[in-house]
Design goal:
Blueprint: E1 3-9, H1 16-29, E2 37-44, E3 47-53, E4 70-76, E5 92-96, E6 99-109, H2 112-118, H3 131-138, H4 145-154, E7 157-165, E8 170-174, E9 180-184, E10 189-193, H5 196-205, E11 214-216, E12 222-226, E13 232-236, H6 262-271, H7 278-286, H8 291-300
Antiparallel strand pairs: 1-4, 1-10, 2-3, 2-4, 5-6, 6-7, 7-8, 8-12, 9-10, 9-11, 12-13
Helix pairs in contact: 1-5, 2-3, 3-4, 6-7, 6-8
Length: 301
């Protein structure tokens, strides 16, 4: 359970300090979905950069300039790949025909080893399952809907992911994991986060009024591109691998309240239907969450 977040300042209305405050508010609110690491990517005078660290979101320092248009962020709850090794944290850098891009993912990919063998992708020290999508994109001709569709349709598990190119084109690929996006028509500002609750909390912290914005609808299987001028284009991919991949577990299976440890076992079983792993349930338990709280969390996602 991780969080995607970010902004696009299409009219260049905000100073670097204002954008940094908005990003800090987003990263802090995003800690609800992960505190093991945080990072962001944006284009600067030296090109596309990624800054990340194994710290909670509120401890990450955002230093974007007045000229910064798009920023793509991530807070992480570790499922695969030790967060203390910073190479395992998001966002990741990739390159297609010499043009760099950044990538961030919320979810779990289960066929990463199979895909690496099938497409003869190079060995990497990055242990995170998400990185397989970066490698798949690097086999394509350009960053765009075709490349993103190709990568998305190979993945089995659960995901929503974002990609940022050198021309400040931000792509959102919406799978079965949540994402909320709000647009402010008067200022040309876009803000997004993995859940509406996180986004609304951040809006309150940075004095942006949600009632001044328009919530953009996105469904599973949809891809969205926001360019540096604020033009939004949409496309689709086949998301059928995200539906039914968790067999033999049933999506309609509901954990029953029990006084013994079998309740946790049932939570672990049904968690697959929502894109989580047994290890993630154990991690939440170790952090003090009660089974009832975890069940409520699953059915709200």
């Amino acid at each position: 359970m991780c969080c995607l977040f970010g902004l696009i300042d299409t009219q260049r209305r905000y100073s670097g300090a204002e954008k940094s405050r908005m990003l800090h508010a987003l990263a802090t609110a995003a800690e609800a979905r992960g505190t093991d690491a945080a990072g962001y990517a944006c284009n600067g005078s030296g090109g596309l950069i990624v800054r990340k660290s194994p710290v909670p979101g509120h401890k990450l320092r955002f230093t974007v300039s007045d000229a910064t248009v798009a920023v793509m962020g991530h807070t992480r709850m570790t499922t695969q790949g030790d967060a203390r090794r910073n190479r395992n944290n998001h966002p990741f850098l990739g390159s297609i025909n010499g043009a760099r891009f950044a990538f961030a993912h919320n979810g779990v990919i289960y066929n990463d080893h199979e895909l690496r063998e099938r497409f003869k992708l190079p060995y990497t020290k990055i242990e995170t399952d998400s990185y397989i999508a970066v490698q798949l994109l690097e086999t394509q001709n350009a960053l765009g809907f075709d490349a993103l569709r190709f990568a998305a349709e190979q993945l089995e598990g659960s995901f929503t992911f974002t990609a940022l190119g050198e021309q400040n084109d931000l792509y959102i690929v919406k799978g079965d994991n949540p994402l909320s996006l709000i647009r402010f028509p008067k200022t040309g500002l876009f803000l997004y986060a993995s859940t509406r609750e996180i986004l609304e909390k951040a809006l309150e912290s940075c004095s942006q009024r949600a009632n001044n914005g328009v919530w953009e609808r996105m469904e599973s299987g949809e891809m969205l591109k926001i360019d540096s001028a604020g033009v939004v284009t949409r496309s689709r991919f086949d998301d059928s691998k995200l539906q039914g991949w968790y067999a033999p577990y049933s999506y309609t299976c509901t954990p029953r309240y029990r006084s013994d440890g079998s309740y946790v076992g049932e939570l672990k079983a049904v968690a697959y239907a929502f894109g989580y792993t047994p290890a993630m349930i154990d991690r939440l338990i170790s952090r003090g969450f009660q089974p009832e709280e975890i069940e409520e969390m699953l059915y709200q996602m």
